[in-house]
Write a structure and sequence with these properties.
The longest helix is centred in the C-terminal third of the chain and has 34 residues. The chain starts with 8 loop residues before the first helix and ends in a 5-residue tail after the last helix. It is of the alpha+beta class and 353 residues long. It contains ten helices and nine strands. The N terminus is likely disordered. The strands form three sheets. A four-stranded mixed β-sheet has the order 5-4-7-6. It has a three-stranded antiparallel β-sheet with strand order 1-3-2, covered by helices on one side. It has one domain. It is elongated, with a radius of gyration of 25 Å. A hairpin with a 5-residue loop joins strand 2 and strand 3. Keywords: Membrane, Transmembrane, Transmembrane helix.
């Protein structure tokens, strides 16, 4: 037994302060041992820049960039990335009018300025979508294995657990630091991507149809062909070596941050003993692999569907369409006749589908 005799008010005060400091260090938010990904303390940053905030209901679309954890009224916004505005790379069709051999060629090209002179028709692309960070957090509430992290904690629902143990500003900051932002020293790949392609990429990652049958059938023939080319271009962009390298680097960084978080979490007073059995880093890697395969499946299915829907609507032969950058349609471009065989040769064959 250790007995400490305190014989003065001053000495008692010093002991209390020391104990408080020890408890504070024990319960502080997770920090990486790698300074490259280490976040600032809570007092320097306010929501929604780096920390989770409560939102009214689940927001599916938010113009401010708020990403909401599925099933929870908790969201966060990406870090600022204004420094990537200049210089910029712009990505759009390499041959908007097609070629004699491949009139529907969906190949892409990197330009030093918007080739259609319409900068507003492009979006800055997060190669690893910010929404995927929120989606993975939400998946921890559904996985049987992941429930070992939080389920044994009595009287606490999943979203409350997320709010208390994941949504510290430091940890969210560390996760978001893995993506391009103004404080990052990395020369990140974050191009200005033609917005139709960017939209299809986002929908394919979140599991939505890249386009619905009713929407596709409401389009003009020119718009239908443009949508097919955009979907094929999305496929090429995702398979590009530079894009795949950036995706892998960012997902690896995120996995590492989850490993740091788990090392901190298992030391918390209320953390269940079963949490030590959960390899959250490996779980993140497997989840990302699943999401990437689902992305390919969603995109491939959408392209095949569009060709099928075209054939349903155009059984009487070819249709005259206009080919150009999406933003310049249908006012100007190259006119040509297109039928189902052209789509099969120009789109499905291009993707080896």
């Amino acid at each position: 037994m250790l007995i400490v005799l305190v014989n003065s008010t001053y000495t008692a005060f010093v002991v209390v302060v020391a104990l408080a400091a020890i408890l504070l260090r024990h319960n502080q938010a997770p920090r990486s041992t790698n300074t490259k990904f280490r976040g600032p303390s809570r007092r320097y940053y306010s929501a929604p820049d780096v920390s989770c905030v409560r939102v009214n209901g689940v927001i599916e679309k938010n113009p401010g960039g708020m990403q909401v954890v599925p099933g929870c009224s908790i969201g966060f916004a990406p870090l600022r990335y204004s420094k990537f505005a200049t210089p910029a790379t712009w990505i759009n069709l390499a041959t908007p009018h097609g070629t004699e051999i491949e009139p529907l060629d969906p190949s892409l090209k990197v330009y030093s300025s918007p080739p259609d002179n319409l900068a507003g028709e492009y979006n800055r692309d997060h190669v690893f979508e910010v929404q995927l960070i929120a989606s993975f957090i939400g998946s921890l509430g559904e996985s049987t294995v992941a429930r070992r992290l939080w389920k044994p904690i009595l009287n606490q629902e999943f979203c409350d657990w997320v709010d208390e143990y994941i949504c510290s500003s430091t940890f969210i900051w560390n996760l978001l630091q893995c993506l391009p932002n103004d404080r990052s020293k990395d020369n990140a790949w974050m191009p200005m991507l033609e917005k139709t392609i960017d939209g299809m990429k986002s929908r394919a990652f979140n599991g939505s149809k890249i386009i619905t049958k009713s929407r596709f059938k409401s389009y003009s023939d020119t718009e239908k062909v443009a949508s097919l080319r955009a979907a094929a271009s999305t496929w090429e962009y995702a398979k590009d070596d530079t894009t795949e390298k950036a995706f892998t680097q960012q997902s690896t960084c995120l996995r590492r941050q989850w490993q740091y978080w788990l090392a901190w979490y298992v030391k918390q007073h209320h953390a269940p003993k079963s949490a030590k059995q959960v390899d959250v880093g490996r779980m993140h890697s497997k989840w990302v692999q699943h999401i990437r395969r689902s992305f390919d499946d969603n995109l491939r299915r959408g392209i095949v569907d569009m060709v099928s829907w075209w054939n349903e609507s155009n059984k009487d032969g070819s249709k005259e369409v206009i080919l150009n950058f999406p933003s310049l349609l249908p006012d100007q471009g190259r006119k040509m006749s297109v039928d189902g065989d052209d789509l099969s040769r120009g789109i499905l064959a291009f993707l080896n589908i």
